[in-house]
Design a protein that fits this description.
By secondary structure, the chain is mostly helical. 77% of the residues lie in helices and 0% in strands. The chain has one domain. The termini are close together. The model has no long low-confidence stretch (mean pLDDT 86).
């Protein structure tokens, strides 16, 4: 994996971790938050398009198809994830999603995109995924406190993982196949999300405007950093196999976990640090 691709993915992970930390809590507003975030992202990055090369050599028909499908897939991902958080244990849902998503993306990249990572890189991928899952399972309730039957945390975590893998593979295909410029592509996806979320809001505009006025600072941070983190990934997949990029972007989970250990003094720090070390080992293998 090239040094530039590594820098892009690590920068994306930092941006993703920072906006998650700053926006912690306000995402509970659901569709209201998602609509405001999509609008902020479209405005901020839309203004950047003329200064970043515009559409460049993008295939306009491909652009329309790409962002149309991508917007729907990203909305589906957010809805499944949020429902999972409502009915299951947050840490288990997050761990299952963030572990299964990259794993499925790797399989899809090999089968659908014809990528062939080296054996050492595949070991690194597995280490990253294992470490990410271990980090998420730190706070899972003890066995005696879990509900009987099928754990909805696992079910919706896996469904979220499928959504992550689907939009990752689709966006990679779209950007590569139609030579799409990442920033306009991300803006177009945000616009599509706004359309879908507007339909889902169903007249809750007063609540939405009140939320935007109250939380505008964190909404602006989200609108800048969330698209940025994915724009960097879209650039990275043009330079490196998605089978390597998809797992590496989950370094953000490690960064958030380390923030929890050192800043929030969360429990079981030894377990968290050990899991983070496994992820770092996987990263080293991918960098070789």
């Amino acid at each position: 994996m090239s040094a530039l691709a590594l820098v892009l993915v690590f920068s994306a992970a930092v941006a993703h971790a920072v906006w998650n930390i700053i926006a912690h809590g306000i995402s509970r507003a659901g569709i209201v938050f998602l609509w405001c975030g999509a609008v902020a992202g479209a405005v901020i990055w839309g203004a950047a398009i003329p200064f970043t090369g515009g559409l460049q050599q993008s295939d306009l028909a491909g652009f329309a198809i790409g962002v149309g499908v991508s917007g729907v897939l990203h909305v589906a991902y957010m809805l499944v994830l949020q429902h999972g958080y409502r009915v299951g244990n947050l840490s288990t849902v997050y761990a299952t999603a963030r572990g299964s998503g990259p794993f499925l993306a790797v399989i899809a990249a090999i089968v659908l995109l014809g990528e062939r990572p080296s054996p050492g890189a595949l070991v690194g991928v597995l280490a990253v995924i294992a470490g990410v899952v271990a980090l998420g399972l730190v706070d899972r309730p003890p066995r005696g406190e879990r509900r009987g039957g099928i754990d909805p945390s696992i079910v919706f975590g896996l469904l979220t993982g499928v959504a992550i893998a689907t939009y990752t593979i689709w966006d990679t295909h779209a950007v590569r196949e139609w030579s799409l410029a990442p920033i306009p592509y991300m803006v177009g996806t945000c616009v599509m999300e706004i359309i879908v979320y507007s339909i889902m809001l169903r007249g809750r505009w007063g609540e939405t405007m009140a939320f935007a006025r109250r939380e505008w600072r964190r909404v602006v941070v989200f609108g800048f950093l969330s698209p940025l983190s994915y724009i960097l990934i879209l650039i990275a997949v043009t330079l490196a196999p998605v089978a390597l990029v998809a797992p590496l972007r989950e370094v953000s989970v490690v960064l958030v976990s380390l923030f929890g250990v050192f800043a929030l003094k969360e429990g079981r720090p030894a377990w968290r640090l050990a899991a983070a070390a496994v992820v770092v080992a996987g990263i080293v293998l991918l960098a070789l």
